[in-house]
């Protein structure tokens, strides 16, 4: 997060992948759909493969090709004064031997995908450093969108899909206690302890 304009909302990149477990059946969609099974329930994601092809392909490579060691949701950042909004952050692996190279940044200015309630997006450090960490918004989060008029790092985060079922699970995770040790001051009071395991992933369409 360093000097990012986003401040407390800055997101760190980590590592990831997952296992296949069927949940939440749905009719076939033109857009890829992936079920993320957590210990608190399932989250069904619809991904924007046409608008954000690089980010979507990267997520699918981690999610459904066996790169799943240690997958979990480790962070719940609640908005001050509005604790039912914020975001949860997850990783698809903690096994560094399974990391793929970082991907190019797909700006919201290019994709047209904004950070609204239920948006899934890639966490990152510097622009072009995203690998496996992702976050899901609970409530609108326009401060994650690119803003060419803002100072400093103003390129935002790469949104690439949305939750179509399971926002109740997202909000349940957001409400969990966060007494864990923070990686940096910006994450203080946001670390889940223990993290919420991601127990399976399956592409539905």
Structure overview:
The chain has 205 residues and is mainly beta. It has a single domain, classed as Cyclophilin-like (Cyclophilin). Helix content is 12%, strand content 30%. It has helices at residues 53-64, 108-111, 167-174; strands spanning 33-38, 41-47, 72-79, 82-91, 119-122, 134-138, 158-165, 191-203. The protein has an eight-stranded antiparallel beta barrel. It is globular. Mean pLDDT is 87; it is low at 1-28.
Describe the structure concisely for a colleague:
The protein is mainly β. The chain has helices at 53-64, 108-111, 167-174; strands spanning 33-38, 41-47, 72-79, 82-91, 119-122, 134-138, 158-165, 191-203.
Count of helical stretches: 3
What oligomerization state is this entry in?
single chain
Which value, in Å, is the CA radius of gyration? 15 Å
Question: How would a textbook summarize the main sheet?
Answer: 8 strands, antiparallel, barrel
What overall geometry do the principal axes of the alpha carbons give?
Answer: globular
Helix proportion of residues, in percent? 10-25%
Q: Which architecture would the CATH scheme give at its second level?
A: Beta Barrel
How would you state the average pLDDT, rounded? 87
Question: Secondary-structure map with pairings?
Answer:
Blueprint (H helix, E strand, L loop, with lengths): L32 E6 L2 E7 L5 H12 L7 E8 L2 E10 L16 H4 L7 E4 L11 E5 L19 E8 L1 H8 L16 E13 L2
